[in-house]
TrEMBL record:
SUPFAM superfamilies per record: L-aspartase-like
NCBIfam families in the cross-refs: hutH (TIGR01225), PRK09367.1 (NF006871)
Major localization listed first in the record, in broad terms: cytoplasm
Homology family: Belongs to the PAL/histidase family.
Signal peptide start and end residues: none
GO MF term (any one): histidine ammonia-lyase activity
Protein's name according to its UniProt entry: Histidine ammonia-lyase
Annotated organism of origin: Nocardioides marmoriginsengisoli
Cellular component annotations (GO), alphabetically ordered: cytoplasm
UniProt cross-references to PANTHER family, sorted A to Z: HISTIDINE AMMONIA-LYASE (PTHR10362)
Keyword terms: Histidine metabolism, Lyase
CDD domains noted in UniProt: PAL-HAL
Domain of life assignment: Bacteria
InterPro entries: Aromatic_Lyase, Fumarase/histidase_N, HutH, L-Aspartase-like, Phe/His_NH3-lyase_AS
Length: 523
């Protein structure tokens, strides 16, 4: 579907994270700026001059990849570009999500707008028109090795610009590209020298997925601090270990931010206050220190934050890049081959992020499990069951968590070390960044589900601590769950719908918003 939002302006500078999300997920329209048009025109003049010359120039008057040694005569160059796109649109498998396709189209347009690729203005404007009309080419799961660009995914998008292949229209219907273009009042492009190559030679798919994953993980790491606070509170843990002077001794910025969040979230907790210092019977609390999964939450969540901060730096550099081969140096009037299409920088951090997702989920599952074991839950009923033995409580919810965490550990195995040669050994080392991005998307979904089950379980445990009162922040999260129809403790009931409801509250940011409505924005 199309959006009534203002158009995102695509110029010679980088696209922001926020604008990418607007276009990819919210369906915002897109427009080229005037400086982008001028840059594109200057680069095209260079390509036209070289195309008319006698000296072979890669990407303009030669074949591609291992076939680059063949000089292509002028009368066959339009066919060369068409053949390139058609042959490279060789993807297979399930359709890739609409938001991913829109992100990679936007990022390809952003590179075209730098004036480094040599396409015509009309070709770039057609990409903007498809995005604005909500026309989404069908891209398949498999086909990119993350080097020479995300070739097959981008080729399927280029094919749609030619009026070929299949697309999803604004309503989501599967239709031939030619029909969708006609319905939107758009004419397909007749590709000329260099354009086919420029449309498919970028790391746009993996980069788009990285930006979206980092956006999601920013929310999820703050939600992980909320879940951890609820678990510390519900398991009668101490908040003293999160004090800023203790974090300063090991000055990792992510750790300090996570610990500060935990301090704020646990402030004014009646549950924590109930076992801090001397007890009513005159004894001291005999809990010397909490288990690692509680006590070390800031260290794990903080390391995750610092790792993702590095990934954001890499993503920012990549957003400011013009990825194509060959690249047009309009200032010098020449076109040069390069290796900037190699996806290694993006692939590495995609793998790092999958490791982060797996480990944050792992510590979350361990915190959850402690609620369910009578020997470790400090007075809570086994499995938080209403009538243990008759009822199973949250026993199998933890099984679900464990199954997801196990899957996340497998997804944390890096794709970026698994190079496989292609193109008759011309492309003999590739990044597999697209594969790293695809598994990261599954990792983000898995982390969302694991955190939701921890929040669900901790909320039930805190209710069972009554009449002790949770902190205002965690109490707001519990109230959110109850207002959403997720009931508190009681006899066993169909648990899956409650888990899914809590998953959506985490994914949408509602859990984070509930806590922040009380204590302000978390770090």
């Amino acid at each position: 579907m199309t959006s009534a939002a203002p158009a995102v302006q695509v110029g010679v500078g980088p696209i922001s994270f926020e604008d990418l999300i607007k276009v990819a997920r919210d369906g915002a329209p897109v427009a080229l700026t005037e400086d982008a048009r001028l840059a594109i025109e200057r680069a095209r003049e260079v390509v036209d001059r070289l195309a008319g010359g006698e000296t072979p120039t890669y990407g303009i008057s030669t074949g591609f990849g291992a076939l680059a040694t063949r000089h292509i005569p002028t009368e066959m160059r339009a066919q060369l570009q068409k053949s390139l796109v058609r042959s490279h649109a060789a993807g297979s498998g399930p359709e890739v999500e609409r938001e991913v396709v829109r992100a990679l189209m936007l990022l390809r347009l952003s590179t075209l707008a730098t004036g480094r690729t040599g396409v015509r203005v009309g070709t770039a404007e057609l990409i903007a028109a498809l995005l604005s009309a909500g026309i989404t080419p069908v891209v398949h799961e498999y086909g990119s090795l993350g080097c020479s660009g995300d070739l097959a995914p981008l080729a399927h998008c280029a094919l749609a610009l030619m009026g070929e292949g299949m697309v999803r229209d604004a309503a989501g219907a599967l239709v031939p590209a030619a029909d969708a273009l006609a319905a939107a009042g758009l004419a397909p492009v007749e590709l000329v020298a260099k354009e086919g190559l420029a449309l498919i030679n970028g790391t746009d798919g993996m980069l788009g997925m990285l930006v979206m994953a980092l956006t999601d993980l920013d929310l999820l790491l703050r939600t992980a601090d909320i879940a951890a606070a609820m678990s510390v509170e519900g398991q009668l843990g101490t908040d003293r270990v999160f004090a800023p002077e203790l974090q300063a001794i090991r000055p990792h910025p992510g750790q300090a931010a996570s610990a500060a969040n935990l301090v704020a979230l646990l402030r004014d907790s009646g549950v924590v206050a109930s076992h801090r210092g001397p007890q009513e019977d005159g004894t001291q609390c005999n809990r010397v220190q909490d288990a690692y999964s509680l006590r070390c939450s800031p260290q794990v969540h903080g390391a995750a934050r610092d790792t993702l901060d590095h990934a954001r730096v890499v993503a920012g550099r990549e957003l400011a890049s013009a990825v194509d081969n060959p690249v047009v140096l309009a200032e010098e009037g020449r076109v040069e081959s390069n290796g900037n299409f190699h996806g290694a920088p993006v692939a590495y951090v995609l793998d790092f992020a999958a490791i982060v997702a797996a480990d944050v989920a792992s510590i979350s599952e361990r915190r959850t499990d402690r609620f369910l074991d009578k020997a470790r839950s400090h007075g809570l009923p086994p499995f938080l069951a209403d009538d243990p033995g008759v009822d199973s409580g949250h026993m199998i919810a933890q099984y679900t968590q464990a199954a997801i965490v196990s899957e996340l550990k497998r997804l944390a195995a890096p794709a970026s070390v698994d190079s496989i040669p292609s193109s008759a050994m011309q492309e003999d080392h590739v990044s597999m960044g697209w594969s790293a991005a695809r598994k990261l998307r599954r990792s983000v979904d898995g982390l969302t589900r694991v955190l939701a089950i921890e929040v669900l379980t901790a909320a039930r445990a805190l209710d069972l601590r009554a009449p002790l009162q949770p902190s205002p922040a965690t109490g707001a999260v519990i109230a959110l769950l109850r207002d959403a129809g997720i009931a508190g403790p009681g006899p066993d009931r169909h648990l899956s719908p409650e888990i899914e409801a809590c998953v959506e509250l985490v994914r949408s940011g509602a859990v984070l918003a509930a806590a922040q409505s009380v204590i302000g924005e978390l770090q």
